[in-house]
Design brief:
CATH class of the largest domain: Alpha Beta
Radius of gyration: 20 Å
């Protein structure tokens, strides 16, 4: 009998996850948007449920009869959804990018004897898996992840379009960035330390600090770690102007007798400008650099990814790279290959040789290819 999987959230990435898992499992998709669900029913032999996932009790009822849950809700719903699933005693692989500390739920997950893999996308996600693999096999001295999702066409003024929720993108521009420098936790302003970085097939991009290390700050004892987001040059200046003017504030202000959060207005205005057009080409680019001591010698490993929109399946690159990491790990859990209990960050997956090889091969089969270079230092 095929195992039953429910995907909570049928957005851009949720759709990619549904279509991939439906090839092997009994899949149900749940979302508040009936139009998204109708489209999915036309594309794959799945069940759908129209439901408001902002209510914990609704989530608990939905997941009751399933073997695995995929969390693909927006970040502001992520933590409460994860908690509801854990309380239901169901294994989950989650891609929602929420601000809360997931390890608050570790004791509960272990008490319920469930596996809860969190941050299981591309970044965080695959970059953690890569680091987890090498950290288990060498003494890592430094780790850097440069990552971004961008449209092929650069358009004024932002030269950017969001492959996921604009509010989640704005979070990256406002949340202070935590990095590790010489063994000490350092907090920098988001968008700080801009630098130009060259990529052979793309050209010059601009990198700046964002708070992407997340679980690595607790799970890794590495003296130097940082994550930077990549954009086309010029984008950062526009965003800084908006931020400093107060457009990203969550504090309500009064306008004509009404209380309005500037952030909500900004997201509403930016959404049409940042929305990818149907079938608009875009790409995901990532470079992970790991340096350290291996077998008594200094070594450097560099992983590079350049993935593009798939015109055949109409699945965006960000959905492919995020979704297929998630479905690869979901398969590990469903098939009993990975069974560790509690809150599981992706680096724990990468530390296991079989899991690492399986995830890399799974991605290769879907033409998401990480090129590896290594050299002695």
């Amino acid at each position: 009998m095929s195992k039953r999987v429910i995907i909570l959230g049928a957005g851009v990435v949720g759709r990619a996850i549904v279509l991939d898992l439906a090839q092997r499992y009994d899949v149900t998709a749940a979302d508040v948007d009936e139009q998204k669900l109708a489209r999915l029913r036309d594309e794959a032999p799945i069940r759908t449920v129209a439901a408001d996932l902002s209510h914990a009790e609704t989530v608990k009822k939905l997941v009751k009869e399933h073997d695995l849950v995929i969390g693909a809700v927006p970040g502001f719903l992520g933590f409460q959804t994860l908690k509801a699933v854990i309380e239901s005693g169901k294994d989950i692989v989650d891609i929602s990018f929420f601000a809360e500390d997931p390890f608050q739920l570790d004791a509960l997950a272990k008490q319920k004897n469930i596996t809860a893999v969190i941050d299981c996308g591309v970044a965080p996600g695959m970059c953690n898996i890569l680091l987890g693999y090498h950290n288990a096999r060498m003494t890592v001295e430094s780790y850097e992840c440069l990552v971004g999702g961008l449209p092929m066409k650069r358009s004024w003024p932002y030269q950017y379009k969001a492959p996921f929720s604009p509010i989640d993108v704005i979070e990256e521009y406002t949340r202070p960035a935590r990095l590790v420098v010489d063994g000490k936790l350092v907090v920098r302003e988001a968008l700080s330390d801009p630098e130009y970085v060259e990529f052979n097939e793309v050209g010059t991009l601009e990198a700046f600090n964002t708070d992407g290390l997340r679980t690595l700050l607790k799970t890794m004892k590495i003296p130097n770690m940082r994550e930077k987001t990549l954009r086309y040059p010029g984008h950062i200046e526009y965003i800084k102007v908006l931020r400093e003017t107060g457009f990203f504030s969550k504090e309500p202000i009064e306008i004509n007798g009404m209380q309005i959060r500037p952030l909500d207005l900004t997201a509403k205005l930016l959404f049409p400008k940042w929305r990818l057009e149907p079938d608009e080409p875009e790409f995901t680019i990532m470079r992970v650099t790991i340096q350290g001591i291996e077998n008594g010698h200094r070594k450097e490993y560099i992983y590079e990814l350049l993935d593009r929109f798939d015109p055949k399946t109409k699945i965006s690159s960000m959905a492919r790279t995020t979704g297929y990491t998630c479905t690869a790990v979901a398969t590990l859990v469903l098939e009993g290959i990975f069974t560790q209990k509690g809150i599981i960050p992706p680096e724990y997956i990468g530390a296991d040789e079989r899991c690492f090889r399986t995830v890399m091969e799974y991605q290769n089969q879907r033409d998401v290819c990480y090129k590896r270079r290594e050299r002695a230092l």
